[in-house]
Write a structure and sequence with these properties.
The complex is a heterodimer of chains A (157) and B (498).
Chain A lengths: L1 H4 L2 H27 L9 H24 L10 H21 L1 H15 L5 H22 L8 H5 L3
Chain B lengths: L2 H8 L2 H19 L5 H11 L5 H26 L8 H12 L3 H35 L3 H18 L4 H16 L1 E2 L6 E2 L13 H19 L17 H4 L3 H16 L4 H16 L12 H25 L5 H12 L8 H4 L1 H24 L1 H4 L7 H20 L2 H19 L5 H24 L5 H5 L3 H17 L1 H13 L1
The chains are: A mainly alpha (157), B mainly alpha (498).
């Protein structure tokens, strides 16, 4: 048992095994609820994939067992990456409210700083130029729709 | 066939300039991660609505031919394929660029994309009729098996672990199942979320799994300056480049045939050609996946040959081979034309303009690829601490522009995080992307095949009665068996004893 627990592949294999069993149960239950023949059922293919995953998860557990224990990989800049994802998420929330121009400029200012650019004037200049360039290229030249921002609507602009 | 008409277009200055215009757009759109040829073609349709059909076709053909090639530029230079068809190019292209051979790799990609495109367009010109007849003989089970074979090959190709490659395929298929079911129209795996009823769009998945994953990987490894590939101009003798010419004819044939089969398209063609190259090239310049130039030749020749192949059923049967040809089909309809079996006879001028547009697109591919593409590498010479936030913004635009909804942006972020975890744990993302693209088609063909044999007495025999089906089934079983650890270890053991 220890041999299995020391290997991440074996642990992942066990998770996929549970997932595949749940997938099989879910597909059969959903199919029964629809009350139709299997040949037309939307859950026929998900059932087939769940069965395939069932065998693959066993194969992965066995592969993990063969390999034995493995070294843990250390992520050095874990916090930096998490902060980056957090800024992205805030950008995602702000985008429909304040629009593309302001939110993108703000996003670029914070991420340039986070990734190591030191000089504020350079950061601000780069962010503004990059935002305008992207806007002109996509919104004005290629006519790609970009979020306009609902705040302007509420402000009557 | 209609040589005089084709020549008249090839010598028409206005026609040439419009193809060049489309080619330049295609070069940039294909090279920028997150922007797809499909999206650009769709945008062009709205712009060219009021143009004549010939003008519209000239621009679109230029964009299509060069756009498919330029997906390789970002695949080679920054390991983010510009299109699913360029995923395989990144396998060897990026390792080569990291070794400082980006210029040479781009030259190979350009020349073999040109060869593949010319082959495909000539095949479209000459073999339009016969190839469509073969494609017509495919049953639903054949389409399913062809996709399954492609996925099995990809799953085993892209990962050291056979199980991990196929687990990636399985999850890709699950994702493709999300949304309204195409046969009975009921919501499936949507978990009550209204936004999921339309399904998971390919663009946010592709942009997230390749674009945002790359951003997160670079940040977590703090590779802010080291990963930037340098473009050193070097002499690459044409004689050396053309050494792979005869192999490329084989890959181009694969690309054209796969392109003619609706739904399969560039990604399957390049994976099949790559898998064939692994078998037929005895002594590659480097091991495949570590910078083999033979891998670039296979991938680029086949995915560009798909262009001509995909046009064949679209023109002759009004059945598009891929998303771009589906949009081109809509251009014909908008202009009151009806592609189909009678199209070549009744609209010979239009057919000639498609051929001429394709051939001129190939010429501009060669010129732009050799002259302009190496200069595009200036983009990656920008330090990553500046490039990564910009790539993130492009990823967001790409995800949003597909359907103009913020939910796709959220999906892109989720796929990016998933791709990062998968990459760290050794699960390849390419099989997942291919499974997402092919999943819907596989599902509907699988169920259609099951439904068709219900009335037969011997169901299994009825399902596998055609020679095409048997060949595809055997190929799929062989691919799976050869990669099962027990079997592959035994084969290695036998080879070792020899």
């Amino acid at each position: 048992m220890k041999k299995y627990l020391e290997n991440n592949d074996a642990i992942e294999g066990a998770i996929f095994f549970v997932f595949s069993v749940l997938g099989i149960i879910f597909s059969i239950k959903s199919h029964i609820a629809l009350d139709m023949e299997w040949k037309l059922s939307p859950y026929l293919f998900p059932l087939a994939i769940s069965i395939m995953l069932f065998f693959l998860s066993i194969s992965l557990i066995l592969e993990g067992r063969r390999k034995g224990s493995e070294e843990r990989k250390v992520v050095n800049h874990y916090m930096e990456m998490l902060l980056y994802i957090l800024i992205c998420f805030i950008y995602y929330l702000l985008l429909p409210f304040v629009g593309f121009l302001i939110s993108t400029a703000a996003f670029l200012i914070f991420t340039f700083r986070l990734l190591g650019l030191k000089k504020w004037p350079l950061i601000i200049l780069l962010s503004v130029i990059a935002t305008l360039f992207v806007y002109v290229l996509f919104a004005l030249t290629l006519h790609v729709m970009l979020p306009k921002g609902s705040i302007y609507y509420y402000l009557g602009l | 066939m209609y040589l005089d008409l084709v020549l008249s277009y090839l010598l028409n200055v206005r026609f040439i300039l419009l193809v060049l215009f489309g080619s330049v757009i295609g070069l940039f759109v294909g090279a920028i991660p997150g922007l797809s040829v499909t999206m650009a073609t769709a945008l062009l349709v709205s712009i060219t609505y009021t143009w004549t059909t010939n003008d519209a076709m000239a621009t679109i053909m230029g964009l299509y031919v060069v756009g498919v090639f330029s997906g390789a530029i970002s695949a080679i230079l920054i390991n983010i394929p510009g299109a699913p068809a360029s995923v395989v190019t990144a396998f060897d292209g990026y390792p080569l660029a990291k070794r400082g051979e980006a210029y040479k790799t781009l030259k190979y990609a350009t020349i073999y994309s040109f060869i593949g495109s010319v082959f495909g367009i000539l095949a479209m010109w000459t073999l339009c009729g016969p190839i469509s007849k073969i494609a017509l003989k495919f049953h639903p089970i054949d389409y399913f098996l062809l996709s399954l074979f492609g996925l099995a090959a990809v799953g085993s190709l892209t990962s050291k672990s056979f199980s991990k490659g196929l687990i990636s395929v399985s999850f890709g298929l699950f994702i493709a199942m999300i949304g309204l079911d195409s046969v009975v129209g009921s919501p499936r795996l949507t978990f009550g979320l209204r936004e999921l009823q339309a399904g998971v769009s390919t663009v946010p998945a592709l942009v997230g799994l390749f674009g945002f994953t790359e951003v997160l990987s670079s940040i977590s490894s703090n590779a802010m300056d080291a990963e930037v590939s340098e473009m050193k101009s070097e002499k690459v003798p044409l004689k050396d480049v053309l050494k792979h010419f005869w192999y490329s004819m084989y890959y181009a044939l694969i690309g054209t045939i796969v392109g003619a089969l609706p739904g399969a398209g560039g990604p399957v063609a390049s994976f099949l050609a790559y898998s064939s190259a692994e078998k037929i090239v005895r002594k590659p310049s480097r091991p495949f996946g570590e910078g083999a130039i033979e891998g670039i030749v296979a991938s680029e020749t086949s995915n560009n040959a798909c262009i001509g192949g995909a046009m064949i059923p679209m023109l002759a049967l009004a059945v598009p081979g891929d998303a771009v040809t589906a949009i081109i089909l809509s251009v014909f309809y908008v202009h009151g034309l009806q592609p189909g079996p009678m199209f070549i006879k009744t609209q010979s001028g239009m057919f000639a303009s498609v051929v001429a547009g394709g051939l001129l697109g190939c010429l501009f591919l060669l010129l732009l690829g050799l002259i302009v593409a190496p200069k595009l590498s200036k983009v990656i010479l920008v330090p990553k601490r500046i490039l990564l936030p910009l790539v993130t913004v492009l990823c967001i635009i790409g995800a949003f522009a597909a359907n103009n909804r913020m939910f796709d942006v959220l999906l892109m972020f989720l796929f990016g995080c998933l791709g990062y975890v998968m990459r760290r744990r050794g699960y390849p993302v390419a099989p997942m992307v291919l499974a997402i693209v092919l999943g819907g088609m596989m599902d509907s063909n699988f169920r259609r095949a099951v439904s068709l044999v219900q009335s037969e007495e011997h169901k299994i025999a009825a399902m596998f009665s055609s020679p095409i089906t048997i060949v595809l089934l055997l190929l799929t079983i062989l691919t799976l068996l050869m990669n099962v650890p027990v079997v592959s270890n035994r084969i290695k053991g036998i080879k070792g004893r020899r």
